[in-house]
Design a protein that fits this description.
Length: 509
Amino acid sequence: MEVVASAPGKVLVAGGYLVLERPNAGLVLSTSARFYAIVRPLRDELSHDSWAWAWSDVKVTSPQLSREATYKLSLKKSTLQLTESANPFVEQAVQFSVAAAKVTVTDKEGKEALDKLLLQGLHITILGCNDFYSYRNQIEARGLPLTPEVLLSLPPFCSITFNSEVANGTMTGEKCKPEVAKTGLGSSAAMTTSVVAALLHYLGAVNLSCLGQSSSGSAAGRDLDLLHAIAQSAHCIAQGKIGSGFDVSAAVYGSQRYTRFSPEILSSAQVTGGHCMSDAVADIVTRSWDHEKDKFSLPPLMSLLLGEPGTGGSSTPSMVGSVKQWQKSDPQKSKDTWTKLGIANSMLENQLRNLSKLAEDHWEPYESVLRSCSRLMCSKWTEVATSQHQELIVRSLLVARDAFLEIRLHMREMGIAAGVPIEPESQTQLLDATMNMEGVLLAGVPGAGGFDAVFSVILGDASDAVAKAWTSSGVLPLLVREDPHGVSLEACDPRTREVSAAVSSIQIN
């Protein structure tokens, strides 16, 4: 038996910093970039004395990193025997998932099947789409243009090479720093969620075959909620802090309006640090998780474009720390700024939801307006409205733009006050130029901001023109797009699918 599950990366388009504190919300889009976890048995047959084993084996393979790690799994405690940690996110995902299966699988037949699967050992293979990694340096080193076409020419699930660390001017021989940087799509959350999803399904704790019917309260909905609780727990323990969790929530449920869970929900898991797994997990799965997730995605005929400026890296934890320090030092000013940001975020969300509703109720005028506006700068959008419905659509587009400009203004003010480059000057120039292009609705820095990435929401077919303009400005347009779907059970190993696609595209004359 083999199980393949995948989970998407994310882009936080509104709610940066605010999403850290309840009851503030963030608008998060899940993407076409996905992590895959493949789980199969290590042994097909069991020896006659296996019933007496206290330990089983776990092997984790990462082909892109040319890495393999083996562990002993305590069948009684559901913990891995770690001499040194190879990947804390995967290790915590395994421990929490096995413990969750033991807690939630209660029928006799299910328990027997679970015990057998664990005795056979677990072989986990992990693959991440190229979109999670930056290939900008390699492209520039080869003198190639910064275009999506060059990214498209890379083989799927490209190998990731590592630099040797340099200490005191000498090579240590320890290859631990990735040569390939990340693009900020939440790789650790997507990877953790894919591993948890594959293991929980493989071990019989959830059934991911019916995800299309996952309304809240349905069996599929309850399974997703269990998966979310376990993935959040594993991810928080692995990173050593209880973050907002929007990245894991997007990996599980897909694009959404997200309000974080109360941090105290994970207090038991945090205290044990993963040592008393069964007690911690039993507590986690019975608690009432109070996060909020409302379905949200871009309206029709709008697309997400991401770009990599290549103007230096940003450390999200240190930027968050500086903003929190500013909040303490100037509580009144910071409160005023957050209130204004909250109002602008809500305005943006309301207008985007309104546009989705207008598309649903009045498709023809909606399509006509968006196709026309995609060929015009925003100053001329009002000229395309020739009916009442079209006027409503154009007005909603312009109010959404204004709300987003307001968000950018207050984010810049917050960055200046806190002494961190939330929207650096170089990004401001690029974003202003982008927002003045034909067919561009929004352009900003995702999440916590900084130098790492920019995004744009574009009308109709204007994406190619924006991508070309970014290339001319030294920005690498990425291939990733919005995909509102969350975690998924896959039919097969994605490498098989890629080979099949390549073979079917070969034309024999």
